Amino acid sequence: MKRLLPRRLVPERTARPADALDAAERELDQLLQKRSALALPEAMLARIVALGLPTDTVEDVLGAIRSLDDWMIAWTRMGQQWLAVAKREDISGRWRHGALARRHAAMCYHAAHFITAADQKTVLMLRSTAAGFFAQAAPYLYEMTERMLIPWKEHLLPCYLRRPVGAGSPFPLLIVLNGATTIKEETLIWSDPIVTAGWAVLAVDWPGTGEATATMPLSGEGESVIVAILREMERDPRVDRSRIAALGFSLGATPVVRGAERDPRIGAVILVTPPFDPPAWPALLDPLMARQLLLLTDDDRDPEQVIASFSLRASLNDWHCPALVFGAGQDRVAPPDEADRVAHGMGEWATLVRYPQATHGLYDVIDDWPYVAAEWLTALYNPQPEEPGEQPKSTDIE
Prior knowledge:
The chain is an alpha/beta fold. It has helices at about 15-35, 40-50, 55-65, 70-90, 95-110, 120-140, 185-190, 190-195, 225-235, 255-260, 285-295, 305-310, 340-345, 370-380, and strands spanning about 145-150, 155-160, 170-175, 200-205, 240-250, 270, 325-330, 350-355, 395. About 40% of the residues lie in helices and about 15% in strands.
């Protein structure tokens, strides 16, 4: 990497987390009352569209939401409608159509807890329901895909292993850790370009996310998860141990980086809008994104310590493996230069790809960045000979 944007000053905290959460709720509720959920920030709209739901479904649900209290009701109601469609398709013998409808139902239940002020039991119920409907649909939608459980401490972490169709073994493996509000089912939906490139994808719900929400509170100190995954996958003779990479999505980048830093079995990493200095985030966010971040620490823990646990400041000093880092120029969850700073800390090992108009998570370019990641993996592990006279290209891509 050749550049680093100036470090932002960390604003002083002027309100307790609970006060900030209440203020964010009030402002968001006022917006919904005036204009409906169709007026949500572009980042959230892109987040919902990336679930793979039909456009009319998204518009119908968002248009019906006029308060925070409407959010969960509207999404679960639409989930029930898609489940009814699935049952009709099953009766007609249209199994794949029925499976797609079940996947839509799963994503509706998943969306139901994005911004709702639900208690923990309700969140667990929604995530469990979404996972159950998706599990019913997966065999009809994704070939060569199996549900697995990865032993970690005294828990079992749910995951999906999706293998490339027609590929022999051993095959290369990309381990994927989702973000705080994303789930393994989403990353599986986005995995087509990676699998088409010949890589198997292991999509994992790590502690505090998805089906693993109840195993342990979300924390950046999760590198032991990477070790547990590697231990389990090394027992699978189908996996090529010399070609194992890991992808960390948003906050999931932290355990990926720390795991790769300490375990040489990870040969490369891909980071999608990773954190660098999270303690600076809350004071910089719009109300919706601030509310989402604060809800991650809506328990007995110190919010500042939880958010700080995801910092990568001290994890990049001796970086030693290839990294593809994606940044978003219109990020409203983190400062837009966070990915730049991560890439700078990795030095010449890093390739920075920056989407100037994209928002956090790159949901609005979900039809592009997975292809870029697939091409990078292919070039890294199966390089093509350079044409005579070809000049080296910059690794900083706008």
